[in-house]
Amino acid sequence: MTLYDLKLLIEEEKREGVISTHSKYIWDLLKDKVVDDTGALKLSKLMRENMHYILSIFSFLAEKGYKDFLIKYFLHPEYANYSIKFEGFDPITGLYKKMTKTKGIKKQYKNNAERYIRISFESLEQYSLKKNRNLKKRLTDEAESSLKETIRDLENGDEKKALLRLHKTFKIVAKNLVKKFS
Q1: How many Å apart are CA 118 and CA 140, to the nearest integer?
Q2: What is d(CA 155, CA 44) in angstroms, rounded to the nearest whole number?
Q3: Cβ atoms of 113 and 146 closer than 8 Å
Q4: Residues 6+ apart with CB under 8 A from 53
Q5: Count of alpha carbons within 13 Å of 15, Cβ hemisphere only?
Q6: Which residue among 12, 87, 106, 174 sits deepest, i.e. has the most Cβ atoms within 10 Å of its Cβ?
Q7: Which of 35, 36, 34, 58 is nearest to 46 (CA)?
Q8: Residue 181 and residue 46: Cα distance in Å, rounded?
Q9: Mean pLDDT of 136-161
Q10: Could you tell me the pLDDT band of residue 131, with boundaries at 50, 70 and 90?
């Protein structure tokens, strides 16, 4: 990522979300600290490392049997029920004049959602099986403890509390990665 790319994302963010909720913590902590291409590249690398942790956490939750929780709060297969069109899209800047979202009723949308879920979990499983990663594979004790609390909440059937704790885990991961930015 370059400084130019970062500025485009920040500008687009004023209109709508550009970063996933699980990665927004590191983004919000660092986006305003980037002043040049070197900083933008550091941010990009840290966001990639953050994504490694997120995918590892999601993989762990899926392996523990909490796929429905992940579908409900992170995959959002309901988006497959829409046809989306962009008017006045500029491929160079990524800006557009108007986005139109039309709800569909076709069986194809249901099939797309099911396929999306299946491929997401297959990809997550493949990701977790890869041994050749250049990233630290272990969470900090604080993040690991928070993740264990998330599992406890899920075991007790409290999804809302589990979601809050999981976001706490994402924040912990982000704060630890931010230390590498300086």
Answers
A1: 31
A2: 35
A3: no
A4: 135, 139, 143, 173
A5: 10
A6: 174
A7: 34
A8: 8
A9: 91
A10: low
CB 19, CB 13: distance < 8 Å: yes
Beta bridge partners of 100: 85
Three-class SS of residue 167? helix
159, 150 contact by CB (below 8 A) = no
SS (H, E, C) 81-149: HEEEEEECCCCCCCCCCEEEEEECCCHHHHHHHHHHHHHHHHHHHHHHHCCCCCCCCCCCHHHHHHHHH
Distances (CA, A) of 121 to 55, 115, 130, 166: 11, 10, 15, 19
Rounded to two decimals, the pTM is 0.82
Cα dihedral 26, 182, 44, 10 in deg (nearest 10): 60
Nearest to 121 by CA among 165, 73, 55: 55
Amino acid at 174: A
Which tokens is 111 given? 């099939």
Mean pLDDT of the chain: 89
Q: Which residue has the tokens 């579908």?
A: 71
Sign of CA dihedral 131, 49, 148, 63: negative
> Residue 135's pLDDT band (boundaries 50, 70, 90)?
very low
Chain position carrying tokens 């687009």: 12
